[in-house]
Amino acid sequence: MTRVKLLQGDITTAEVDAIVNAANEVMLGGGGVDGAIHRAAGPALLAACREVPQVSGVRCPTGEARITAAGALKARFVIHTVGPRYGIDANPAQLLADAYRSTYRLALEHGCSRLAIPAISCGVYGYPLDEAARIALGVSLEDEFNSLEMAFYLFGEEIYTIWETVLAEYKAGT
Ligand code: APR
Where would one find coiled-coil regions in this protein (predicted)? Predict the structure, then answer.
């Protein structure tokens, strides 16, 4: 369980193999953690995103992940993933789980073992925090991802406490 850590803070300060970004399908930046990551990474990240092939404007469909260089961030890569818009996209629970799984599989494919991860879909995309925590931590603790060291960077006291409670439940096997 120690391979999954919860931290309260700004993900752009992480020194890891890959920083995970809560992006949108266009993948050219935005608000929230996406905006923070692009600000900290600098224009090189946006340039790298523009290189990602797009199909009628979509670079990363919801539930999938794409990997780019990390610009000025203290990481080798940024893994951009797109979570569901709660109340808009169908099957949000499945799509949120897919976003985390796609992210972790891409990390493994690129030899990344240390990841910094935000709470995907928990801001602009409006996912209820406790449900999102169960899905995120449930996927994170799957055996397939045992070799990954995951640091969740949670922004604020409320969400940190919710995730801490859910992680404790998983540890207790409840
Ligand atoms: N570090 C860590 N977490 C952060 C940071 C930060 N610097 N800034 C915001 N967060 C948190 C939010 O508080 C929320 O808990 O990241 C979580 C995800 O929220 P959003 O960034 O709004 O992402 P999401 O809900 O997935 O919506 C994605 O928002 O910013 C746009 O371009 C993005 O269109 C996309 C959409």
Answer: none
